[in-house]
Amino acid sequence: MSRLYTAPDGQPRCGWAASAPDFLRYHDEEWGYPVGDDIRLFEKVCLESFQSGLSWRTILDKRENFRAAFAGFDFNKMAKFGAADVERLLQNKGIIRHRGKIEAVINNAARAQELVAEAGSLAAFFWSFEPRPENLPEPQTAATSPDSAALSKALKKRGWKFVGPTTAFAFMQAMGLINDHANGCICRKKAAEARKAFTVPRLEASGR
After folding, report:
1. Which of 101, 156, 165, 185 is the most buried (most CB within 10 A)?
2. What is the pLDDT of residues 158-190, one digit of tens each?
3. What is residue 162's DSSP assignment?
4. Which residues define the annotated binding site for Zn(2+)?
């Protein structure tokens, strides 16, 4: 797929934004803009975990169903889910009914609580893995990076599941830890401006 396409408004966008009807809005309004909210960050980790082996279109189409099923991805609520909740979720046709992934994100909710206690917030921990500019790959040429591998390793060390380097990289792209909008995409400059206005959360304790 070309790295650029001309959207209906005549402006260039990342080529993948043309892949599905809902992608353009997601691309323009969400993808690549910096996020510092713990719930949104946790939601994205969970959705990327569910996407493993599937298309993002499948997950985006079901996102509201996921939110309803998983208590709005409030990890403090999800950490209380038990075996009965797993069975309930396995019967929910509106989400991806994969036992391993369901159990993984419930596990990760408890790990998220631990991480907040360790680092002060999920945002502070995740943003501590923001790549240095000189370490950034050419936009839309990579599926992993040394920084996503480091984030994946750090999460796995803390007991998180379904958070491999590719999942971590997709998370970093979407949450604005890197600006991976294609060169020439009108949102690349917008994402860069949003990053300049964004205050990077800082660790309260050494989390790395």
Report:
1. 185
2. 999 999 999 999 999 999 999 999 999 999 999
3. S
4. 14, 27, 181, 185
